Amino acid sequence: MKLDSMKRRITAAGLVAASVLAGVGATTALGGGRMTKTQNEKSYKLDVASNTAVNGWRAVNSAVRVQNNVSRYVVVNFNADAGVDSLAEIRLAYRVDAGPIQIAGAQNFANHTEYWQTRHSMVVLSVPAGTHTIRPYWRISGSPGKNGVIASRCLTAEAYTH
After folding, report:
1. Do residues 7 and 53 both lie within one domain?
2. DSSP 53
C-alpha cells in the first residue's frame, strides 16, 4: 500500500510541475516575456564645464536618444569627475526633450571635498512612446559666489523594447 500511495504522490507532483511549466511557457509566449531586447544608449564627453550658483539649471553637454514603441521607464546613469566650492553642492536633474526639468530621485550630486571625485547618479524616468532625447541638467546650490566643475562625463540610458 505504501508503494501505491508513493506512486500517486509522485505522479501528482509531476502533473503539478508540468502544469506550472506549461503556464510559464504560455505566459512567456503570450506577452509576459515580451521585453526581450534591451536598448542601450551612451554619451561620453571629456570636456570640462563650470557653473556658478547664480546661473541656475544648465544643460550638461551630454545627451542620449531613446526610442520607445510604448511609454515605459528608462534607467539613466550619469557619472562625472566633480568638484565644488566649500559650503556648496552640485545638484542634478533630467529633462526629456523640451519638457520640464525633472528631479527624479536623489539630486545631490556632489559636496565639497579637498580633491575632485568621480560621482554617480542613477534615476528611473518615465519616457513616453516615440523617440526622445534625455539630457542631464546641473546647478550649484550655495551662495552667489560659489562655483562647481564637472569633467569626463558618461551618460547611459537603458530601456527594454518589444
Report:
1. no
2. G
Exposure of 151 by Cβ count < 10 A (0-12 exposed, 13-18 middle, 19+ buried)? middle
The alpha carbon dihedral of 117, 91, 60, 84 has a sign of negative
pLDDT in tens, 38-48: 567 788 888 89
Nearest C-alpha neighbor of 121 from the set 113, 109, 136: 109
pTM of the model: 0.72
Q: Which of 87, 84, 82 is nearest to 142 (CA)?
A: 87
Task: Scan for cell 561620453, then name that residue.
Answer: 44
Residue 140's domain comprises: 37-161
Q: What is the pLDDT of residues 86-107, one digit of tens each?
A: 999 999 999 999 999 988 888 8
- Residues sharing a CB contact under 8 Å with residue 138, sequence separation 6 or more, in sequence order: 51, 57, 58, 60, 90, 91, 92, 93, 109, 148, 150
Cell 521607464 sits on residue = 73
Cell numbers placing 86: 566649500
In this structure, the answer to whether residues 22 and 41 fall within a common structural domain is no
